[in-house]
Amino acid sequence: MNRLMILWTLLLAIAPRISGQILPNADHSRRMDIRIVPLYQHWSLADGEIGLTEASSALEMSAPLSEDLDLSLWTARGAVSGDIAGISGFTDTQIGLTYSVVPRSVVASLGINLPSGGKEFSTDELATARLLSNTMFDFQIRTFGQGWNVNPGITWAFLLSPRFIAGVGASYQYKGPFRALAFVSDYKPGNEGLVTAGLDYQLSPWSVLSADLLYTAYGKDMIGSREVFAAGSMATVSLQLVTDFGRNQLALLGRYRTKAKSEVAIGSRLIDDGIKLIPNEFDAGARYRRVFSSAVAMNLQLDIRTSEETDNPYSGMTLYGGGFLPEFSLSSAVALTGRLLYHTGTMKGSQSIKGTDIGAGVAFIF
Predict the structure, then answer these.
(1) Spatial separation of the C-alpha atoms in residues 87 and 188, rounded to whole Å
(2) Could you count the other beta carbons within 10 Å of the beta carbon of residue 123?
(3) Would you give per-residue pLDDT tens digits along the chain (366 residues)?
(4) Helix, strand counts (H, E) of the chain
(5) CA 180 to CA 223: how far, in whole Å?
(6) Number of neighbouring beta carbons within 10 Å of residue 363
(7) Cβ contacts of 181 within 8 Å, gap of 6 or more
(8) Which letter, b or e, does each residue of 203-236 get, where b requires 16 or more Cβ atoms within 10 Å of its Cβ?
(9) Which of 39, 155, 285, 341 allows an S-S link to 303, with CB 3.0 to 4.6 Å?
(10) Angle (nearest 5°) at CA 42 between 36 and 46
(11) In angstroms, what CA-CA distances link 41 with 85, 118, 225, 245?
(12) What are the CA-CA distances from residue 175 to residues 113, 187, 188, 219 (Å)?
């Protein structure tokens, strides 16, 4: 693998991080909530020639610090194995603060990525990191470590009419430098700016339709003082319908993400050479939640994921799947969750793909 291809692989492994959302699955309830989420994920790629397994356990916490201020934390440990170079260890620790100004419907947030995970990869491990970062596989751990990140943001929701609620928001993410490879000791990913707008329409007392638009602009990636990569912008449009049937609920979601072409350093200049590393993606799904009693509920999930075929060797995918996510409330302070999902499909038109998620979690509410 030549030096330029290694650089592209490094950038691909880092770029798909979710912009402006430094705390995945944070729960900002008004009670302290601690969740432990073990998960086993296995994918078989290229007609079974490549097997990839991630066994991970995530720790999530949310806690009110005051009437208006909430704290969130997320970290994980995992091990990746299979027909690729293995990676294991802790991830970075992500901490978030949200402050709500209730009368004005304004929420200010601050996310901080603490570089507690591993960051330096060998070239073989970098190929594994590229697979983990692919959003089509939906791994619980998509990257094991980066540098310091700081992500301030603000959102504002306002009433347009008795049935319409609108919201706008913006955030900025500073990304610190870190050692990414043995010969790339001063790599600095580009900073990110994000703006979002959303609209909720109450179709009936039990149905709400939501539309959201998210636009992300990426700064230039640097090695030392040299610009090496410009990721291009990204836009995401989503539409969701949520309908309640008494205690039960049906949610339908569609989402499309489009990514501009990137520029890569050729000599001393950034050139658009026609290579597109991050494909456009579309996914749609349905989830039905059935409550059987105050202690037992079941979620049924069905979805489809597609990505366009690009220069990325792991693009051109079509996946179909679904599964079950049960919930058990043992008491007002302890709950259990389960996860059993299966997906199958094709890559590059003919190569078969299969994936399985098996997990269980426990939540402690104080």
Answers:
(1) 22
(2) 16
(3) 444 444 445 554 444 433 333 333 444 356 899 999 999 999 998 877 889 999 999 999 999 999 899 999 999 999 999 888 899 999 999 999 999 987 778 999 999 999 988 767 887 888 888 888 888 999 999 988 888 999 999 999 999 999 999 999 999 999 998 887 766 778 888 999 999 999 999 999 999 999 999 999 999 888 888 888 888 899 999 999 999 999 999 999 999 999 887 777 666 566 565 667 788 999 999 999 999 999 999 999 999 999 998 877 888 999 999 999 999 999 999 999 999 999 999 998 788 999 999 999 999 998
(4) 2, 22
(5) 10
(6) 19
(7) 6, 10, 120, 121, 122, 123, 126, 187
(8) eeeeebebebebebbbbbbbbeeebbbbbbebeb
(9) 285
(10) 155
(11) 16, 21, 39, 33
(12) 9, 10, 7, 10
Q: What's the CA gap between 9 and 7, in Å, rounded? A: 5
At position 125, the amino acid (one-letter code) is E
Q: Confirm if 79 and 128 have CB atoms less than 8 A apart.
A: no
Structure tokens at 347: 């890559």
Burial class (CB in 10 A: 0-12, 13-18, 19+), 34: middle
| C-alpha closest to that of 260 among 306, 295, 310, 304 | 310
Position of tokens 């058990």?
Answer: 328
Side-chain-facing half-sphere of 335: CA atoms under 13 Å: 17
Residue holding tokens 């294991």?
A: 88
Q: Which of 106, 67, 9 is nearest to 313 (CA)?
A: 9
Written as six digits, the tokens of 97 are 């603060």
Helices 123-133 and 3-14, interaxial angle, to 10°?
A: 40
Other beta carbons within 10 angstroms of residue 161's beta carbon come to: 9
